[in-house]
Specification:
- By secondary structure, the chain is an alpha+beta fold.
- The chain has one domain (about 10-140).
- Helix content is about 35%, strand content about 20%.
- It contains two helices and four strands, in the order ααββββ.
- Strands 1-2-3-4 form a four-stranded antiparallel β-sheet.
């Protein structure tokens, strides 16, 4: 005996399973998209920070040697994109001066003589899209004619 009344087509279980798979796929795609956006923003922040550090180092290098400590040591700075009214990087909540950048200039060791050799450290600490971030660059600057 054959079944003449076989039901052909889609059952409610098939439709429910298809919808569940579709929802999982869409949610996975949304998660990947958000992750890519977050990584892109993190990369942009790091590029902005690296460019700001280079600008600060250039400013230090172009300052006459005897004026470097007075002009730059202990100076905080903000990071702006060209034409922007608000800072591109936000300082950490714990930052005392509210500026993400800090320049420190000390006598390099050796020779530990500020008249011969200085070490400038430029640090950026900011609240990034993926949490606190830090970037640091250090250079040594010798007085012209000095042999450290």
């Amino acid at each position: 005996m054959t079944h003449r009344n076989q039901v052909r087509g889609t059952t409610l279980v098939d439709v429910s399973a298809s919808i569940a798979l579709l929802v999982v796929g869409v949610l996975s795609l949304a998660h990947v998209s958000l992750t890519i956006r977050s990584l892109t923003r993190t990369d942009e922040e790091k590029s902005i920070a690296a460019a700001a550090l280079q600008e600060e180092l250039h400013a230090i290098e172009s300052t006459p040697f005897r004026e470097i400590v007075a002009r730059h040591d202990g100076r905080g700075f903000a990071v702006f994109l060209e034409g922007a009214a608000t800072p591109a990087l936000r300082a950490l909540a714990s930052d005392v001066d509210g500026l993400p950048g800090l320049v420190e200039v000390v006598a390099a060791d050796p020779p530990n003589d500020a008249e011969l050799l200085l070490e400038a450290t430029v640090t950026l600490e900011w609240e990034g899209s993926c949490g606190p971030r830090r970037l640091l660059r250090r250079i040594r600057i010798a007085r012209s004619g000095a042999s450290p």
